[in-house]
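Standup notes, structure subgroup. Blocker cleared on the L-homoserine input:
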Amino acid sequence: MEYLKIFAPATVANVSCGFDSLGFAVDTIGDEMTFTKTTEKGVKITNITGANLTYDVDKNAASAVVKKMLIEAKADFGIELTIHKGFSPGSGLGSSAASAGGAAFGTNQLLGNIYSELELTKFAMFGEEVACGTPIADNVSAAIYGGFVLVRSYNPLEIIKLPVPKELRVVAIHPQIEVKTKDARDVLPTEITLKDAVTQWANVGGLIAGLYADNYELISNSLVDIIVEPVRKTLIPHFDDVKNTALKAGALGAGISGSGPTIFALCKGDKIAEEVYKSIQESYKNTGIDFEMFISKVNPNGMKILN
Ligand code: HSE
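Run returned:
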């Protein structure tokens, strides 16, 4: 294979209670990337559209991953990369994860598919570290594996693919402000009480049990985050209004997507998802803040080869 074009999906991480450990891929938003084999070794970014990102191959999350993989695989070729961002960095929808995960996936194809999804996730985590200082796995594993994932362990890395109830839909609103992941991590508590820990891990267990059992009521009851959301929501204008509007319109739950500012709501079925979409749209119009919205199914496949 000499050339490849791929779609790398946006992702929702944390999913309320599962900070740094739960995530899912969406199918309506993502990046497109191309990979061209070159006889000259190394990596070069020839074009970036849709966002203002660095062409410095050691600082760009995508090229840093390509470079690392080519060196580790002792490849006798190089790669020219183009990146078209379909959504903004700093949105909370896993922008750097789509770039880093897409880079790992695309490079692996040109290398002849030598790495597993788990190994690709590890490479992509390096891209996350380049982008935001921490090798987080929730967004990248969701983008690479597709569907709903649990990062069961970071050391050693273990990713579990979870079932996705058929009628699950996500509605998301992205207020057009940027929240840097690093800033959103700097506000987090470094210690929590045992009581809060019990509440949080019980909700993670409940959410996962709900996904396995197709039990929307259990999913709804478990979409609660008492640790991260209370501190991060202060960075997101009108968070409480959006969440209350979504719940009133019938959403199963709502929370911050990744490190924000995107707010996601999970819904049962298309009809309720459309109601939730309309209600949030109506109420946010009055805030004076520009925003974008989408409805999506959970994307079961993750990365997609376009040609
Ligand atoms: N789990 C991460 C966070 C996702 O919430 O900080 C952002 O990359």
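Discussed briefly. The longest strand covers residues 22-38.
Next: hand off to the docking folks.
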